[in-house]
Amino acid sequence: MRRFERDVAIVTGAGSGLGRATALLLASEGGKVACLDVVSDAAEKTQREITEAGGTGQAVVVDVSDPASVAAAITTAVSTLGRPTIVVNVAGIGRFEHTVDVTFDDWSRILGVNLTGTFLVAQAALPHLLEGGGTIINIASNAGLMGQKYSAAYCASKGGVVNLTRALAIEYQDRGVRVNCVAPGGMDTPMVMSEDSGFQPPAGVDLDQFVQEFARVMSPFGNATPEEVATLIAYVASDDARYMSGSIVSIDGGITA
Ligand SMILES: NC(=O)c1ccc[n+]([C@@H]2O[C@H](COP(=O)([O-])OP(=O)(O)OC[C@H]3O[C@@H](n4cnc5c(N)ncnc54)[C@H](O)[C@@H]3O)[C@@H](O)[C@H]2O)c1
Hints:
Layout: E1 8-12, H1 17-28, E2 32-37, H2 40-52, E3 56-61, H3 67-81, E4 86-89, H4 104-129, E5 134-139, H5 152-172, E6 177-184, H6 190-193, H7 207-213, H8 226-237, E7 248-251
Parallel strand pairs: 1-2, 1-4, 2-3, 4-5, 5-6, 6-7
Helix pairs in contact: 1-2, 1-8, 3-4, 4-5
This protein binds nicotinamide-adenine-dinucleotide (NAD).
């Protein structure tokens, strides 16, 4: 039997990168997958890929930083696919900026999507998970476990995701809900590779200086593929990980060792 045959999964950020890879993998092993993203075309593309491969997916548009949008998206996912048993909080944004240049809007947007968004989706999904058990996997980053230049808001948001995970794990560990966190290092996804990625050297920092400054977060293994990280997420979501809760699992080529 395929691992997720009896599961309904909600995956945020499912239109791109790690969210897409996770949605495709869970669906390929029998899960019915709600593909949540703020970009409707991207969510629909992932849904199409799932359907074309013989799986079941449903695109749902959401802005995870908006409580009303999250509530509506979870209601749509549940009414279309059924009670969720797996929730994967992947949606995330970031940019490199000198801290002195970070506007209140930049700070609020990054915290709003990465940390508040993770909280809102978990909160809206929890009543359903509590009805019969389930699991939440939050995506942090090496940047949630260590300092990184030009990344105050991103580091703060991902550090928040790490300890939000522990708080939820403790609160719900005797009620059939496991909560864990996967913390990737560099991954080859549009977040870091697209031309309009926010992860470009900030003003006044040339490429040589930037490469030197970021040497400590570059693994000799290079970057991970999103599929490699999705494989870990699928393990944590599966019944094989029954004994895991409150864990922060790094997959970062050794940079936080
Ligand atoms: N790429 C990396 O090197 C790296 C490293 C460590 C951690 N991460 C984390 O992994 C996760 C996935 O990143 P990725 O590299 O696949 O990025 P990505 O940019 O390829 O995908 C992120 C997805 O989130 C969606 N999204 C953004 N804001 C949203 C919102 N308000 N509501 C709903 N969806 C929204 C985007 O539309 C996009 O589809 C993020 O949480 C990121 O912080 C990435």
